[in-house]
Amino acid sequence: QTGATVYNCALEGSYMAALQPTVTNIEENPLDAFSFFWISDSIQTGNWDLQYKALPLLPDNIDKKSYTETIDFMKTIDYASVDLLIIYYDGHDYLNRNPIANPTNIYDVTTMEGSFTGCFERYPINYPNMQAMLISPTFCYVTTEDGKLEGCDLADLGHGNLPTCMTTLQTQAQNYGVSYVDNFYGIKINAETADKYLLNDAITPNDEGRIMIAERISGFINARIIKE
Q: How many helices (H) and strands (E) does the chain have?
């Protein structure tokens, strides 16, 4: 919808926050290699050894073939030529109860804030011409202990509801000059419309929902292009 060349580097089921503070023992949590900070680190160093080491160790619920194809592709990209980096995670960090922030360490990669901050301390230096855009998750459901569904706008899983989780990241985005697109309130996916726009997993938008999201993101990009 923008006429741009788009590289889809999605890693389904990955998290923004890592589970462990280091990747010394990646065998314990191989999915950490595909968290936001460590993927960003590989982009900036050009070294993808960590991801290739972790690929065969991924749990069975992860599509290893898809991950391998994505990493194979990502290492071929000339990132110096990329105009816009779009960061788009769904509510999996929230559902996994990953911490939002560590008040004593803003670079703690086991938190969403730390993973984001550690990345954007370096991106502007290494890629001064690359702009970035952080996309908020859309509405999703939480399955309660009694098997019922509760909206993420109400359910506090230990770190606040989903909109609360995104407030900290929105602030950090502003601190680092990263555009922020609110898809939680900006997209008409909510408790009243979820049956129409979400798949059976209660978190993934269906084709109609994805079109709405694409239209909103491309609308911001096109408006900026026209303005510039």
A: 10, 5
